[in-house]
Amino acid sequence: MVNNILKKYKKILSLIILLLVMLITTYIIKYYFKPFLSMIIMFLIANPVYKFMIKINIPDKIAGALSIVIINILLILILLYLGSGIFDIFQKIYLTNIENINKFIQDIYSALNLDIKNIKIGKSVLSIINQESIRRGALTTGEGVIAYFIGNISAFFVLVDREKLRELILILFPKDIMLKIKKQKENFSQMFIIEIILVLISTLEIIIGFSILRISNPFILGILCGALDILPYVGTIIVFIPIIIYNIIMKNFLLAFGLMCLYILVQVIREILEAKFLSDKLDIHPLLVLISIYIGVEVFGILGILVGPMYSILAKEIIYSSS
User: Fold this and answer.
1) C-alpha distances in angstroms, 224 versus 57, 219, 312?
2) Which of 188, 218, 227, 277 has the most crowded Cβ, counting Cβ within 10 A?
3) Quick check: 273 and 194 in contact, CB under 8 A?
């Protein structure tokens, strides 16, 4: 009786078990192993460099270390370039429009019937930037630096000892599960590639849009938007909102409206392309892809972008398997 029930509902039970495993694994990674994401990203970026060095007969450990160092140097240079460009942009805006900004603030206070003289800005700022907030910020920054550092070290060992790690995984996990994962390895790789392509497309759209709207430094701002595009919900909006507010202050309402339209257009195109690309590559309906991404992001944040579609891929394999 029990065997018949298990056989009848085998696929449903398998889907539930898979869901629980992915939920627990992702939860552990998110809250107890924060370096995981930086490790994966560093590994994916450094892997081509590592393979190239191995081809030219550089010892594996030296190749692994050099790959990590080279990627970090490139990232630092990019950050310095973007940081310098962003600082110059804000400095230019501040110096050239300080009077207009002050006038706008005064107009707001006047509209709200507030007396600027009686507002103690210093105390307000101090109430926000207090000892507790500084301590939390320092802790968060420290944790981020440590996580990134550990992620780099982990990426090095994954690069150098990947075969040993593969053997260990084969010992720990059942053979049939590993065969299914191996079968879907290409799909997982395609997911990463698709996300990179989508980021590049969004970056190009934003650069072109900013250029058409004659926004200063469209290239730097576009690259920054592209880098932030991997963050769900709060990605490119971090760049768009200040620019929109600035143009409203400057009474460039048409330009502000154009920026709003550009942001909406970029997001809509991204969602459509993401669903289309993933559904075509993974042979899954676009609606299911969108739902899986949405639920994944809601539950796990940035990790959900990958976890949601991954579950869909493995679930499809279970549902359509012959056994």
Assistant:
1) 37, 9, 31
2) 277
3) no
